[in-house]
Amino acid sequence: MKLDRLAALCLMLAIAPVLFAMETTAPHWTIVAIALVAAYIAICLRRTGFAARMMLGAAILTSALYVMLGGTASGFIQVVRQTIYLPVLIGVLVPLRVVAMEAEMVKRAGHFVVDQPPSRRFALLAIGGQIFGVLLNVGGLLILLHVALRGPMARGPDDKVAALQTRRITIAVMRGFGANIFWSPLGLGLNLLLTLMPTLTWTEFAPYGLAASVVFIAIGWLVDRLQSPPPPVARKAEASGEGWSLVGLLAILAVISGGAALIETIFGLPLRGAILVIVPLFAVGWQLAVRSAERAPYQALGELLDKTVRALPGASNEITIIASAGYLGLLIAAMIPHDAVSQLALGLGLDGGLLAVAICLLVLASSLAGLNPMIASTISVKAVVSAGLAISEPLLVLSVLVGWALALVVSPATSTLAIASSVTRKPQSTVGLRWNGAFCLAVLIVAMVIFLEIWP
């Protein structure tokens, strides 16, 4: 227990040097931050699974290769500076998850999006998948799937109607969850990619991301309707939750995003840094707002601190995988000769829309082959930016995110598919390519048309 508390303390202390590292090019704050995160991972290593340890081992071996090939200390510091934000972001999201997991608003919103007539169920489940995914990450996916499938799963695998409902509910939640990667200011994917962009900020990319999210879900809804037309007379359902609870969760996301933007404007802190400040502050405020009248504020805050300290070591598996994957992708990209990338792109005639299509397909194909999409995404973006290839920054980020979002619903290398497969008790091949293959193809076709013909 003492070691777990020490690990939690290391991760919480890493917030400050990460913030300072954003404001200065001096390497010492980055070194302090990576030392604290490394201490956290080392202490919690016994809690991690096989996949996390393999990813960590690959990162260590790649570091040794980097040194053997003559990699510079400054190059290493730059890779670490771009990677270190991710594990700290996961850490600051923990108190928010602690409060949200016990909030009645979240429970009522979950029941509301589930207990809807078929005509509205896909849209609300997809929206719920986004909101729960932003607030709770994969924990939100797990909660929503459990709530949504409690009825169909109880009727057994031989019930054809239940089997159809299980498939439709699952794909709606998965596609909604996958869509939040395009815009979420708390998302790991977008935050990682923006650190690699020379000038692009979240505020500048948000309109593209929100539009992509809408198109992604709209295609998902259309494919679902074509594959499973609604019955002539839809069954009416009484919603056991409250629609205002869902609106309340949307308001929470708006407050967090708006608060981060306000901090950025007033103090000049990058939005990514502002997120590290506003999220724990909001968690504290939420905890105080929902406390019972019998409990003093200090008791509510003490409970939140205690639960956060207990929960942080439990996030070690996720943190180890995410940190190792991001670091691995960036370090591999740093070892790829820029001239070789430029010559390859020139030889294949890849630029603009055609390069975007190639990157999107590369991320998706490599994830289907078993590679974590974060690795392929960071390698692609870092290599393209370093080589100075002709593609706009929003298009580059969007092309990667399309491939990444599709990987979340079809790739065995993602936790999304693993969770959905476990909850539905279906093979990953069924939940992935069989249930989402046609949707994946449809999104790819639309993306190619936009990248090649519509994008300015």
Shape: globular
- Poorly predicted ranges: none
State Rg.
22 Å
- Please estimate the helix content: over 70%
SSE ordering:
HHHHHHHHHHHHHHHHHHHHHHH
Judged by helices, strands and strand pairing, the structural class is mainly alpha
Distance between the termini: 57 Å
How many distinct helices? 23
Transmembrane segments: 31-49, 56-77, 83-101, 122-149, 205-223, 243-262, 269-289, 319-336, 348-375, 395-423, 435-455
Signal peptide: 1-21
Keywords: Membrane, Signal, Transmembrane, Transmembrane helix
Keywords:
globular; 23 helices; 456 residues; mainly alpha; 0% strand
Protein architecture, described:
The protein is mainly α and 456 residues long. It has a domain at 92-313. The chain is 80% helix and 0% strand. It has helices at residues 2-13, 15-23, 28-43, 50-68, 73-83, 85-102, 104-114, 118-136, 138-148, 150-154, 160-179, 188-196, 202-227, 243-267, 271-290, 297-311, 316-335, 338-348, 352-368, 373-387, 393-410, 415-424, 428-454. Helix 11 runs antiparallel to helix 22 and helix 12 (188-196) runs parallel beside helix 20. The radius of gyration is 22 Å and the shape is globular.
